[in-house]
Amino acid sequence: MKICIWLGTISDIGGVQRLCTLLANELVKENEVTIASFDTPEKLANAVYKLDKRVKFVEFPKNKVASNIFYRIMRRILFKLIRNDKYLEKIDFPKFMRKRLVDFANQGEYDAIIGVHWYHSLWLAMIAPEVRAETVGWQLSSFDAYFNTPGKYAWRKKVLFEEYISNLDHYVVLNERTKEKIDTNFGIDSSIIYNPRSYTSKEKSDMKNKVFLAAGRMVHVKAFDNLVEAFKIFAQKNPDWKLLLVGDGEDLPMIRDKIKKYGLEQRIITPGKTDDIKKYFLQSSVLLLPSRWEGMPMIGLEALEMGCPIIAYDIDAMGPIISDGSNGLIVKENQDVNTYAQAMLEIAENQALRDKMHQAALQKANQFSVGKIMSEWEKILK
User: Fold this and answer.
1) Domain membership flag for residue 205
2) 3-state helix, strand, coil in the chain (%, to 5)
C-alpha cells in the first residue's frame, strides 16, 4: 500500500513530529510511505527524531504568494476587518492552490493520504472529491484548542470544517470528548485512535526520589508559567521536593525570571531541551502536566511506561490517560494554582499512594502499546 503523510514539518522538536515519525516508521514495515512537508533536505538531515531510511520524502507544494511579506501584512488587516469567516477562505485557501494540490495528490498514485493537524486535514478535505486516494484527516489537539482559541490553530475556520470535513473518508481524533464535540458540530462519525507510547523500558522510576518532572516546549499552551506559581505555593509547605522543568522555548526566559524572583533556583531546575527524556524520568517520581490544552501528550504516555503518576488539569486529553485517584490526580478547577498545589502536596506526602499509583500507571501503559494502536490504524487504512 502506498501511503502519503501530509504535515507542516517533520524536523522540529515536538509531540506532532515525534508522533508522525513513529507512525511513519511503523507503517513503512509493511507499506511504501512518503512524507510530504515544507522541510528542506538540510532540515531533514538534522531532524531530532530519526525516520526509517525506507521512508521517502517529497516537498509539499508552497503557496509562494502567502510567503510574501506584503501579503502577510494585508492578511492580518483583512482578518481584523472581515466579519464573514467564509470569505476568509479565499485568502487562505485560494482555488489555484487547490488545483496544484489535486495534481500533487494524484500524481503520487497513493492508496491513502493522511492530513496531519487542522491545516493539512482541511486542505485534504477541500480537494478530497477529486483525489483518487483514500483520505484521512488527523486531529492532534482538542476541539476547543482548534476552534475556540483566538489566533490559534483553526480559529475562524469552523465554517470551513462544517462545509468540507465530511468529504474525507475518515477523520481521526484522540479521545472520546473530542469525538463527541466533532461529531455534534460537523455531523460526521469520527474515529478514535489513541497515540501510542513512544518507547518501552525495562528500567522504571523507583519512586524514591523526591522530584517532580515537567517537560515540553516552553510555550503558553503548556502553562509552565502557572506551574511555577503552583510550586511556589507547594514549596511554602513542603521543604524537600524539587522540580525538574525540562525543555526550551520562547517562554523559558520569562519562566527562569519568575523562578529567580521567587527564590526557587535551588528547588526548580531548568536544564533545557533534551533528546533523552527517559533519564529525567528515572530521576523523578511524579509527572506534572499543567497544560491549558492538549491532544494526547506523548509525555503522559511516557510517564505511564516509566511508572510515574501524573497530576493534570481536567482537560479533554486526560480522560484516556489518567484514572483519577488510580494512576494520577485530576484537578477539576482548570488553571487554579492553589488546587494544583494541594494535589502536589497530597501525592508528595504519601509514599503508599505513590507506590499504588506507580503500579496502576504501569498497568495502564499497556493500553497504549504500538501494536494495539497500529492495529487501529490498519482498520482505517484498508
Assistant:
1) no
2) 45, 15, 40
Residue 134, phi then psi, degrees to nearest 5? -65, 140
pLDDT per position as a tens digit, 150-196: 888 998 899 999 999 999 999 999 999 999 999 999 999 999 999 99
* CATH code of residue 15: 3.40.50.2000
Same domain, 230 and 364: yes
In the structure, what pLDDT confidence band is assigned to residue 339 with cuts at 50, 70 and 90?
Answer: very high
Longest dimension (CA), the chain: 64
**How many other CB atoms sit within 10 Å of the CB of residue 291?**
26
Q: Is 0.85 topped by the overall pTM? A: yes
Residues 217 and 353 both lie in one domain = yes
* Distinct helix (H) and strand (E) counts, the chain: 16, 13
Q: How far apart are CA 72 and CA 244, in angstroms?
A: 39
HSE at residue 209, side-chain half, CA atoms within 13 A, is 18
Q: Is 328 strand, coil or helix?
A: strand
The reply to whether 376 and 283 lie within a common domain is no
Give which of 289, 295, 320, 304 is closest to 363, Cα–Cα: 304
Q: Are residues 64 and 175 in the same domain?
A: yes
- pLDDT of residue 65 exceeding 70: no
Domain that holds residue 36: 2-196+370-380
What is the three-state SS of 155-183?
A: CCCHHHHHHHHHHCCEEEECCHHHHHHHH
Q: Which residues pair with 173 in a beta bridge?
A: 192
Residue 58 lies in a domain: yes
Weakest-pLDDT range from 144-158, 202-216, 243-257: 144-158
How many residues make up the chain in this entry?
Answer: 382
Same structural domain, 132 and 253: no
Does 174 share its domain with 66? yes
For helices 298-306 and 351-365, what crossing angle results, to 10°?
Answer: 110
Verify that 158 and 252 share a domain, yes or no: no
Q: How far is CA 210 from CA 11, 216, 283, 285, 315, in A?
A: 35, 20, 9, 7, 26
Q: Is residue 203 assigned to a domain?
A: no
Domain count, the chain: 2
- 31 versus 42: the higher-pLDDT residue is 31
Stated as kind and residue range, the H or E segment containing 268 is: strand 268-272
